[in-house]
Amino acid sequence: MFRRKLSALDYHNPAGFNCRDETEFRNFIVWLEDQKIRHYKIEDRGNLRNIHSEDWPKSFEKYMKDVNCPFKIQERQETVDWLLGLAVRLEYGDNADKYKDSTPDGAKNADNTAKNAEPLINLDVNNPDFKAGVMALANLLQIQRHDDYLVMLKERLTQDAIAKASQSKE
Asked: What is the similarity comment for this entry (predicted)?
């Protein structure tokens, strides 16, 4: 649920983060405050860093008020998401020039995939619609049929056959 934001913040285990595990949650809050949010001065983070204390929930609740989080301590997922959003905003603010001209990884990958990938790479050759399409194409191009439609495509679909078909008005 939080993987993208955790990855953006260089969290050590973005895919495995479990906000329901109490120890992991408390350690995460300390990491987030120490590394990304930095709302408190270093010397004022002691109560939050003492994750084994019985008073930690009170310290966390005070922290939530201090950073103006609109959620209650019981709304853990919403709180984590809100804190991650705050951390991402602060990270961007600290490094705005670095991120100004960057593009999303998905957009880069989509462009590269479109340029480099084989156009038929994701084609399901066992699909009945594909088989019917091959047979229709063979009829259109006047290619002799073969029992194995893949062999027919591979061996019979030549540049000459394509050129002949493109001259036809069909």
From this structure: Belongs to the RTRAF family.
Q: Which domain holds residue 19?
A: 1-101
Residue 112's identity, in one-letter code, is N
Distance CA 130, CA 150 (A): 10
pTM of the complete model beyond 0.85: no
Query: Rounded to an integer, what distance in angstroms lies between the CA atom of residue 121 and that of residue 6?
Result: 32
Q: Is 49 helix (H, G, I), strand (E, B) or coil?
A: helix
**Is residue 36 a part of any domain in this protein?**
yes
- Tell me how far apart the alpha carbons of residues 107 and 121 are, in angstroms, rounded to a whole number: 19
pLDDT band at 27 (very low <50, low <70, confident <90, very high): very high
Whether residues 11 and 90 fall in one domain: yes
